[in-house]
Amino acid sequence: MAAFRARHQIPDVHMGLYKPVFDQYSPRYAPGLFTDYQLTSLSDAKTYLDGKNGWK
Questions:
Q1: Which phi and psi angles does 52 have, rounded to 5°?
Q2: How many CB atoms lie within 10 A of CB 45?
Q3: Which candidate, 48, 30, 51, places its Cα nearest to that of 39?
């Protein structure tokens, strides 16, 4: 692990370049979407999520 860390570093992301793009992003589903209802199956998930997609 030490040898890997000696050769690699965390990339320096210039947020000034990417901030306008990140500011336009909207998540596909709202935070906390599953707190009120627990899904029981994949078909139930599809039914539940059909009207909640934020990427229409």
A1: -110, 10
A2: 12
A3: 48
